[in-house]
């Protein structure tokens, strides 16, 4: 966060959901940055706060119960939290686009796919209906679907094809930032690989920055430049992909890699992380990972770890690095 080359900077962001059962601290004191043309992987278990982070950037947190407690989201140097709804509508879908998890629920079943792509184009660009449909045809072809299918409805496409349509909608206005929320979760493995290749190629072609939300470390290795590991609303480790894979520091990150089969090792059993993710309305005191951590010290249950830069560009939230012995 030293220069102005970053397209997006998130500073000390906290997002809570206030419910009858208690306050869910979905995102706590988050600091992240992403440069132009970079891909950032946001990795964590279900409930870690990945999708809430994305909705926070898009300013789509449901209120109530969601509440942006504090922090800044600087996009192209301007704080999105200070924008009016009218200003945000000009940014969403135009400069920042999002691909949601399930393409079937993202698409309108009673509109043709061509109309849905054209709708985004007409909203943000000064074009007439004919030009917008031509743009829709071009975008379908970009994602590997014949342009003649603009008059087809979502139910006429397979799951992988629907995901391509959603990508076409997201990229229709050539956004500078694309947020992909587990875009391959509902697809089988071969289609997953095709969709990821497509996204990588289109990202390069349009020079788009991307936030890839996933719990698949294989996808991260394939697509991302930087990675942020999330646990219970906290970014606990943040660095570039190579360093994360060769030298993970946080015990949780080490545990994630330990639970993945290694084809070079002859092992009968994997090493899972013991225990379960904490109840989001009752996060443990101190470091939220300490009840499951194999390296937990007495102080871990009392003191919240700070974000420590252990080497240039490698940040870890862990008391092992705050109080080195």
Provide a descriptive summary of the structure in words.
The chain is an alpha/beta fold and about 325 residues long. Helix content is about 30%, strand content about 25%. The protein has helices at about 50-60, 85-90, 105, 115-125, 130-140, 160-170, 190-205, 215-225, 240-245, 250-260, 320; strands at about 5-20, 20-35, 40-45, 65-75, 80, 95-100, 175-180, 210-215, 225-230, 235-240, 305-310, 315. An eight-stranded mixed beta sheet has the order 6-7-8-3-9-10-12-11, with helices on both faces. The protein has a four-stranded antiparallel beta sheet with strand order 2-1-4-5, covered by helices on one side. A hairpin with a 2-residue loop joins strand 9 (about 225-230) and strand 10. The protein is globular, with a radius of gyration of 21 Å. The model has no long low-confidence stretch (mean pLDDT about 90).
């Amino acid at each position: 966060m030293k220069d102005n080359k970053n397209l997006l900077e998130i500073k000390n962001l906290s997002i809570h959901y206030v419910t009858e059962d208690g306050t869910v601290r979905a995102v706590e004191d988050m600091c992240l940055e992403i440069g132009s043309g970079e891909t950032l992987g946001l990795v964590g278990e279900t409930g870690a706060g990945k999708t809430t982070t994305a909705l926070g950037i898009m300013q789509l947190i449901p209120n109530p119960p969601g509440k942006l407690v504090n922090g800044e989201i600087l996009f192209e140097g301007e704080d999105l939290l200070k924008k009016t709804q009218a200003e945000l509508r000009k940014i969403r879908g135009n400069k920042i686009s999002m691909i949601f998890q399930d393409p079937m629920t993202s698409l309108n079943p009673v509109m043709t796919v061509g109309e849905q792509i054209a709708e985004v184009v007409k909203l943000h660009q000064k074009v007439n209906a004919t030009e917008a449909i031509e743009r829709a045809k071009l975008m379908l072809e970009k994602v590997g679907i014949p342009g003649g299918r603009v008059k087809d409805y979502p139910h006429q496409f397979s799951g992988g094809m629907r995901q391509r349509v959603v990508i076409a909608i997201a990229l229709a206005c050539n956004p500078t930032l694309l947020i992909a929320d587990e875009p391959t979760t509902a697809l089988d493995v071969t289609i997953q690989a095709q969709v990821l290749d497509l996204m990588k190629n289109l990202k390069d072609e349009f020079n788009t920055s991307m936030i890839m939300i996933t719990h698949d470390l294989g996808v991260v290795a394939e697509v991302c430049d930087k990675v942020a590991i999330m646990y219970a609303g906290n970014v606990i480790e943040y660095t570039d992909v190579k360093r994360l894979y060769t030298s993970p520091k946080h015990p949780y990150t080490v545990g994630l890699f330990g639970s993945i089969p290694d084809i070079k090792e002859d092992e009968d059993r994997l090493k899972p992380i013991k225990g379960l993710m904490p109840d989001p309305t009752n996060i443990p005191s101190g470091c939220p990972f300490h009840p499951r951590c194999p390296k937990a010290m007495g102080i871990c249950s009392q003191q919240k770890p700070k974000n420590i830069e252990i080497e240039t560009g490698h940040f870890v939230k862990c008391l092992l690095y705050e109080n080195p012995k």
